[in-house]
Amino acid sequence: MTATVTRRKENKTASPGKGRSSSNESESRRPKLRIVDKGALKRRARRRAVLGVSAATIAAGVFAVALGYAELAKGQQQLDSIRRDISQSEAEIARLEHDVVLASSPEAIVQQAVSLGMVRAENPVYLTATQQTQASQQTQTAQQTQASQDALAGVLADAGDS
């Protein structure tokens, strides 16, 4: 529905100065009126609703992206912390392995034995892990038993003399 507004024609018979000034004054005092189209109102309301929903959707999307970045930053901090812990643990492991190597060196073992009061054997006996026949094992066992008995007899004799 369209409407047209027509202006009233000015009275040409009236004096040109008075008629114009009075009509201009009345026109400036009167608001401009027009007929409102209900369909246009509905379209505007629909556009505003769509714009409002679109703006809310965009704002929610921006918020979701910001929230996602915050979670990524939080995860990155945790990852950095874990990497720092791993690095410290690896350094500790390397230090402990170095200490084990130093403590297991022959010089360190001798030094520790001396500090505990041990002395070097005059005639060291080295054991080898080889296969021997049963006869040779028995011979060695008999010799060791005899040597032990002789040593025990010597100790007892010395103890009896005192």
Number of strands: 0
Helix content: over 70%
Gyration radius (Cα, Å) is 56 Å
What portion of the residues fall into strands of 2 or more residues?
under 5%
Describe the structure.
By secondary structure, the chain is mostly helical. Helix content is about 75%, strand content about 0%. It contains four helices and no strands. It is rod-shaped, with a radius of gyration of 56 Å. The model has no long low-confidence stretch (mean pLDDT about 80).
Characteristic terms for this protein:
162 residues, 4 helices, 73% helix
Topology, pairings included?
Elements: H1 16-29, H2 38-103, H3 106-115, H4 134-161
Structure summarized in a few sentences:
The protein is mainly α and 162 residues long. Helix content is 73%, strand content 0%.
